[in-house]
Design a protein that fits this description.
The complex is a heterodimer of chains A (about 170) and B (about 70).
Chain A: H1 2-18, H2 21-34, E1 43-45, E2 48-50, H3 55-86, H4 93-123, H5 135-164
Antiparallel strand pairs in A: 1-2
Helix pairs in contact in A: 1-3, 2-3, 3-4, 4-5
Chain B: E1 3-5, H1 7-13, H2 18-25, H3 29-37, H4 45-55, H5 59-62, E2 63-65
Antiparallel strand pairs in B: 1-2
The chains are: A mainly alpha (about 170), B mainly alpha (about 70).
Amino acid sequence: MRNTHILKFIVDVIWIFSFPVIPLIIVFIPYIFFTDDFSGLNLVVNGIDLEVLDINSKLFVAISLIAYLAFIYCVYRFRKLLRYFLAKKIFDNQVIKGFNVIASLLTLFGFIMIVVSFVSNVINKKLEFEIGVNSNLMIICLGLFFLVLSETFKASKEFKKNSDLTI
Amino acid sequence: MSIIVNLDVMLAKRKMKSKDLAEIIDITTANLSILKSGKARAIRFSTLEAICKALDCQPSDILEYTED
């Protein structure tokens, strides 16, 4: 239980620092498409320095920001899960659903980011083959890990039900 | 499920109340109710033994198999 408290604290800190960024991102996404000059802002999104952007780069940045919003939502859902854990409601349906939502979002946005960065590279004629572990691949792995957790908890819930109904 | 629990019948035969049986075999009335209603997924040998001892009967008097 002590580990859960530590984990909850870490996730809370991440959430507190991420939360104020949400409205900024929501405002910034439409703003990208209405302006061309970002030199005053000095922003870097996923390695792209936002100074002067063409429409493809804008699209890439917008998708990156949406993916970041999805990641923040995953942190929010994970906080909720940890609250259930601390309340000892480990086999609640909401826990299984939460794991499923996190898994789906991480996997989906991991794939989207890989596709978008590949297309972006092709459009910018920088066709290069990168071998190794990159952050998008790690996000997909994390998503799949949460999917396994969701299935494990679903099976555990059934075992618990059987155990509870063994008289 | 094709296993039927005839605990009600045995309790009636022995003129014993569920609450008394629950007390004797040391399980909660809620669990005994689950057993009686057939919602139980499994029964421990120790529970079956205690029930048989309390009702002075055989496991076959309590459990019955019928085809679905």
